[in-house]
Design brief:
5 helices, mainly alpha
């Protein structure tokens, strides 16, 4: 186990209490997802401040955050190698497109139907799409194990 890993305490906790690896993996993904959510909301806010239309701002910030999420997930949450790299990238692309559609649809509905502020709508949409992103990557893309880096 890497001594400097920010996830050491979670690994020890799971070992100590016999928690399932999927729960630990979800917490790791939650941490990574939190960082990417900050990127998503911050990017969305900046684009909105630049008068970019809401749908374009939402799609753009989500795409940037998803790219960051892929790389962080690869290093800290999921183990690669279940499929060839080209297959894996295609699968990540499909999972991300579904996540993008869900995120953008939710933001649009929250703003148009519920008259919520765009940033608030984005903040509400993120945890709803989080579950899809985690399960989509765990089931359809990566091996369902934590990478060696964190062990």
């Amino acid at each position: 186990m890497l001594k400097g890993s920010p996830f050491v305490f979670l690994l020890k906790l799971c070992d100590q209490y016999g928690l399932p690896p999927a729960l630990l993996q979800f917490f790791l993904y939650l941490f990574v997802g939190g960082l990417c959510s900050i990127c998503d909301v911050g990017g969305f806010w900046l684009l909105q401040a630049a008068d970019i239309p809401i749908i374009i701002a939402s799609a753009t910030s989500f795409t940037v955050a998803t790219t960051l999420n892929y790389f962080l997930s690869y290093f800290f949450v999921f183990e690669r190698g279940r499929f060839s790299m080209s297959h894996e990238i295609a699968r990540v692309f499909v999972v991300s497109l579904i996540g993008l559609a869900l995120n953008t649809l939710l933001v649009y509905l929250f703003v148009s139907d519920l008259a919520l502020n765009g940033v608030l709508a984005k903040i509400i949409a993120i945890p709803l799409v989080l579950f899809w992103n985690f399960l989509g990557r765990r089931i359809f893309v990566f091996r369902p194990t934590i990478p060696v880096l964190c062990k």
